[in-house]
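User: Assemble these into one structure.

Assistant: Restating your components, then the assembled model:
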Amino acid sequence: MRKTIVEMLKNAGENFISGESIAGDLGISRTAVWKHIQKLRENGYEIISSERRGYKLKDAPDLLLPSEIQIGLKTKIVGVDMHYHPSVDSTNRVAKALAYHGAMDGTIVVAEEQTFGKGRLERKFYSPRGKGIWFSVILRPNFLPKDAPKCTLMAAVAVAEAMDRFNLKPEIKWPNDILFDGRKIVGILTEITGELGKITYLVIGVGINVNISREEFPEDLRDIAASLSEIKGENISRVKFFRAVLEEFDKLYLQVSENGFDDVLNRWKKYNVTLGKNIRVISAGDGENFTGKAVDLNEDGALVVDTVDGLRTVYAGDVSIR
Ligand code: ADP
């Protein structure tokens, strides 16, 4: 309901729109309209009211509200259904619960803050209120479980494409960290639920540091984390950036569903900073530790590393560039 009111105000542009016409269109009373307007103001919308002319939108908040993200969003699947929370423990946890109860392909969960943002291996992901974009996407893809890791690459490419639109040079480290100056700007965590030979759903969690200055990061992250505002030299609209991410994500997902991952892998290569570098790998399976030169990304999205013992293929693990 509130989203529709914001939409009406936005469509009216510089003009006032009367409480009566909003009430009429929505089939509610003028008092109910007034209450919604009050609620919107509490959410940070600046709405001018005039007794005779009605309401006019002066300014909208940089909050990731459905009324900011979904109105006019050009996506077919991703974000068509959206769940917004001022605060959650983890958007991945909420998304998995929704998926379990049947949430549709492309459903997103977004929060202003996560109190227990998750990384891999139960590591914590710092997600302060209003400073980043902390969200998860539920996918119900038609492809096989072996293709799931490539969805993680797809998510990284989606964010990279959005950064490219904003002239923020993206650097992807295999498989899916986005870096600036060697420090992490974006973390991605993909969780899969399925049965043998079939993906029931994937939940892809993405954490984007948007407007966090270096001093604002907790001390233990200061030398390993960065944010988009640091690249840009000024704050960035989270609303605009998130919309761009969702549009890119949607485009890639549609394309992958129809034509496979070739294009995603090529785009990943264009943005990556791992290939050609001497790296250290801690492989996820056995925790084995080795060094070598990253030489290729194979068709499964795995990293091919040239080592003293010959070529080795890494499917999951941590990589540091030496
Ligand atoms: P992901 O693949 O989700 O990034 P990781 O396990 O690699 O998972 O990320 C968790 C690690 O990232 C933490 O142990 C911490 O060192 C670092 N980290 C935590 N919060 C942030 C953040 N907001 N930005 C960058 N790095 C972070």
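The chain has a mean pLDDT of 95.
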